[in-house]
Amino acid sequence: MSKPVLIVGGGPAGLAAAHSLATVGKSAVIVEKEDRLGGTPILSGYAKLVPTGEWAKDAIGGMVKRVEDEPLVSAETSATVTAFDGTPGNFHATLSNGKKIEAEAAILCTGFTHFDSVNKPEWGFGMFPDVVTTTQVEQMISSGQGVRCPSDGRKPQRVAILLCVGSRDRQIGREWCSKICCTVSSNIAMEIREELPDCHVYIYYMDIRTFGLYETKYYWRSQEEFKVKYIKARIAEVTSDGEKLIVKGEDTLVKRPITIPFDMVVHAIGMDPNVDNPEIAQVFGVDLESHGHLDVGHTYGAMAQTSRPGVYAAGASTGPETIDDSIAQGHAAAMAVLSAAKEVLSKTA
Amino acid sequence: MSKPVLIVGGGPAGLAAAHSLATVGKSAVIVEKEDRLGGTPILSGYAKLVPTGEWAKDAIGGMVKRVEDEPLVSAETSATVTAFDGTPGNFHATLSNGKKIEAEAAILCTGFTHFDSVNKPEWGFGMFPDVVTTTQVEQMISSGQGVRCPSDGRKPQRVAILLCVGSRDRQIGREWCSKICCTVSSNIAMEIREELPDCHVYIYYMDIRTFGLYETKYYWRSQEEFKVKYIKARIAEVTSDGEKLIVKGEDTLVKRPITIPFDMVVHAIGMDPNVDNPEIAQVFGVDLESHGHLDVGHTYGAMAQTSRPGVYAAGASTGPETIDDSIAQGHAAAMAVLSAAKEVLSKTA
Predict the structure, then answer these.
(1) Is ipTM strictly over 0.95?
(2) If pLDDT is split at 50, 70 and 90, which confidence band does A323 have?
(3) How many Cα atoms occupy the beta-carbon half-sphere of A294 within 13 Å?
(4) Residue of B335, B338, B339 to mutate for A, most A C-beta atoms under 10 A
(5) In chain B, which residues have their Cβ closer than 8 Å to the Cβ of A301?
(6) B62 contacts A300? CB cut-off 8 A
(7) Radius of gyration of chain B (CA)
(8) Is a pLDDT exceeding 80 seen at residue A121?
(9) Torsion sign over Cα A6, A8, A10, A15
């Protein structure tokens, strides 16, 4: 039990796993490919998080600080795992920086990759500067700059948020739902309305998936308190008349074609499997599920178990996930590691 | 650190929390109001669980056995907590059976109450015997009886599943979404089609919320492989012509009134806050959120924290929740208890 647990990825799930292990006196090494911990909420500059409304830099930043202050946890940043051999209790990892780590087990908290909107060219991203992504709007808010049209810095008077960009779209090989974009978009719409009370915000959707208690806090509140408008529609294309962006499609409830001018169009981009997953799967010898996420077994026994004994996975590495659930899964994966170690001990005792 | 942790509720979240605590050598006492452990999946006789397809009696039954075999965990069944005093590290609980328990902390895993369909009288439950709930269909499947019309035992040829019964319905004071009914209904629809290949199954919905990877495994698979039909509709009432049940409403996509005969109508019943929550809140001195669930704070620090220090909550006690997430939250709540104890120790050291 003296070897550390190797945690790959320093986002919410990885930070939670490391904290849990340290809580019970178990050491951990976090290997993070970027130059600092925090994962996507920090690295992509998210603003106020769903559902707490806390700023990402405070909420996830606090998790980073807690782990950095913890003597039992060390971090290797700007590093990846290039080889991983051995058996449960006795793994050997080689890092891209040349270091070698002996590990009892590994937890893969390698997250996701934001969908790149250039892969949906008919919706205007990369062609018109005022077509942006939810991540860009998060950055406009978190930076303090405010929501502005990139083309000329003006305050938009009409904003369209298009849901399911890179989600539920078989034409471009993304069949899954990204789970959280509906709620994040509601949240962003309210942020825009709060900063720019004269700006009209429309959300174009297939199905509104503000599940559970998000229904009240986001779907209803955004409509009633913030006057955000929801339109069930199929969007065909985003073009420009030289002055405004033009969203064309069909309102599927009234069965009418729509052609509406906007100052800014926001793509609610989905969660792709981490682009590194094929390499991660090969290095760690674990299976991917059909969409390309890390495959995990059931939750009833040792949860977060991949196809390789002693290697676990948590958070958005296993499929689109909320931050809260990623954190819970990180804690639970840490417990699964400890539980498996206990079983080994009891068998050898 | 010698006192046990009190866990209230022996369902998936409570079983997970108890297992986690025992894993790290910490004892726990589960207080369960019913006469056995397992929670709703066992007590309501669920069939194959989302998303693993494992039978509830095996999946959750296995979790029960693991905890029952664990010397560090004891259970008080057919009992409730009637008083809970003290401070973190030093709580005193009195049970309805007269026993007294000294506890370091408490985790409330008190789950939910199924919506009672008699509160939606215009949809025919309680009036027509062949109007049933998703829970009843689960029981027909798990008992081995098969899906049959209660009125005369015949195999239904046409089944309608109505979503959002007791969810997203302000008229009856249930504004929240129950999160998992869409996916459970897809699952049940496939089960029916598998047992009765000649039976047509229709799902009437507002929004289909098969979020994340459920989209592929349930929404698409049920349509393509099992030919389940999805109709976006507002249902007005369920009546009978003396022979068949008649579902009346409006197809909201084609804007046409619908009047369709069925042999069986299934209410996809939602998750109400546990009816005992007002009492639980009073005994434990914790706050409820606006809908009546147990209120918990953010997940970034010690997750699962209620308004009373030393008292935690996990799973569907805090809002509609999946089984998998309830389990992860149970493990995470156990870690939060240990983490808080560690902080106290380090401050007094």
Answers:
(1) yes
(2) very high
(3) 33
(4) B335
(5) 62, 66
(6) yes
(7) 22
(8) yes
(9) negative
